[in-house]
Amino acid sequence: MPWRGRWDPGRERERMVTHQLRERGIRDERVLEAFGRLPREAFVDPGRERSAYDDRPLDLGRGQTISQPWVVAVMLEALDLHPTDRLLEVGVGSGYAIALASSLAGETYGVERIPELADAARERLDRLGFRAIRIRTGDGTTGWPEAAPFDAILVSAGGREVPAALVSQLKPSGRMVIPVGGEFEQDLLLVRRTESGEVSQRSLGPVRFVPLISDPHPG
């Protein structure tokens, strides 16, 4: 039953964790705790806070969205992040997913193609105390070579294929979660790089993300 009365973001966050995540199969307590701590309302535009805990993606403008909480939780649970892990997110958007990821991982890097979103994410994350996250503007399909290799890569946009540059920036035993497919639906893949350099893929189910766009004329 919807909450009737004064809007209480803490209560809405608890409901999200219970009904959208735990009851739908998210089992990693670290992931659930991260969602329970982070104020999602801080990542939406002013005036839209009451929509922050809706069970759906939320519009950011510029054709971008904050992904549905359950989808972000599936991705983070699949990455199995640890405090010693070096992590890269491709497609920072509002900064919500990278904030969650940074509370589970160690060194955290993010690439965002749209300068306005990158600037807003930096300001928001700094205000919330996530000052160690490094974000730069650029083509996420090329990763962040200077900071590689990574234990984990979180790709928050859907591509036609898995970018070879991102695979090459995974450590041995590294893993990446990435949506791959067409414009209207993708397959969420868990990609693993073995100690010998071989690459395996496993489907986590159908999703729909904004497009992963590469720069055809870098530099």
Task: Write a brief structural summary.
The chain has six helices and nine strands; from the N terminus they run ααββαβαβαββαβββ. With 219 residues, the protein is α/β, with parallel strands linked by helices.
Distance between the termini: 52 Å
Basic shape: globular
Fraction of helical residues: 25-40%
Counting DSSP H or I runs of 4 or more residues, the number of helices is: 6
Order of helices and strands: HHEEHEHEHEEHEEE
Structural class determined from secondary elements: alpha/beta
Averaged pLDDT: 93
Strand content range = 25-35%
| Second CATH tier, the architecture of the domain at 57-207 | 3-Layer(aba) Sandwich
Kindly identify the CATH topology of the domain at 57-207: Rossmann fold
What is the top-level CATH class of the domain at 57-207? Answer: Alpha Beta
What is the fourth-level CATH superfamily of the domain at 57-207? Vaccinia Virus protein VP39
Going across the major beta sheet, what is the strand order?
5-4-3-6-7-8-9
User: Which blocks of ≥5 consecutive residues have pLDDT under 50?
Assistant: none
Radius of gyration (CA) equals 17 Å
Characterize the largest beta sheet: strand count, sense, and whether it forms a barrel.
7 strands, mixed
E-strand count: 9
